[in-house]
Design brief:
Elements (H helix, E strand, L loop, with lengths): L5 H8 L5 E7 L5 E5 L4 E11 L11 E9 L14 E9 L5 E10 L9 E7 L8 E2 L7 E2 H12 L14 E2 L6 E2 H11 L2 E6 L2 E6 L6 H4 L13 H12 L17 H22 L1
Antiparallel strand pairs: 1-2, 1-5, 3-4, 4-7, 5-6, 8-11, 9-10, 12-13
Helix pairs in contact: 2-3, 5-6
Length: 281
Amino acid sequence: MKNVSNNFKKVIKNGGPFYSYAKVLFSDGSEITLNSEDDFAISDNGYSESGGDDLPLGSALSKTITLSLFNEDGRFSDYDFFYSQITLYTEADLEDGTQERINEGVFYVTSPVATGEVIEITAYDAMYKANKEFTSQLFYPATARNLLLEVCAFVGITVADAHFKNEDFQIQSMPEKTTARKIIGYIAQIAVGNAIIKNGSLSIKSYDFEPLRDVTDGTLYCAGMIAGEGLVGIALAILAVAGVSLDISGVANFGNIGGVVLMIIMILTLLKFSLWKKKKA
């Protein structure tokens, strides 16, 4: 949730209009400002968020923007956008004659940009920094919290809040030859949520399954599970009772079936049974 003034809320209620505004900080320290009326447009589907897979939980989500700069007169031709930082804002004209801007985040240009009459720029939020191989130096077992702090320090991403759901979960072993981003996603799964970049820092966003108690009359959604809550907690509990151990990547110690896949199958099965039970009742 973003903090905005009451006047801005009125603009939202009236359906806009809204405009885009951006500040570009180049690698040499120089800076320019851009407005959507004269300088650029956000390309179709040019503001998106993706975790790189289709899993509902346990993703390290990354936001991407694609800007089209109007360069018919060549005013941007001498700028090198490679390695630049773009701070994007949503702007609105208020009824008192002033403008208000909402910070949508800082994005990094990680590839060379070709010049032309229209300059297309694609930039990513700080999650891109985690797309590198990572090997933990902690002693195991280690807590999910300590591993998150280690991996974020390694890639240079600040942590918005060092505390999150199930932060004391004990990770028994650390897989080798994996990326920092995958590790962050695994930790987010332990926290029953996803990892996002918010205001330039990493935050674990956990989901609350408590409202689903009414759907299952409390049969499947209950508090106090060993790690997580609701169906995710029950799935982890079943794994523990069955003697199936998981490493940080969710790989079980039997066969080649990933613990993540097994967990999702159990969740869907339990949910289907619960809804059937509700309907039958």
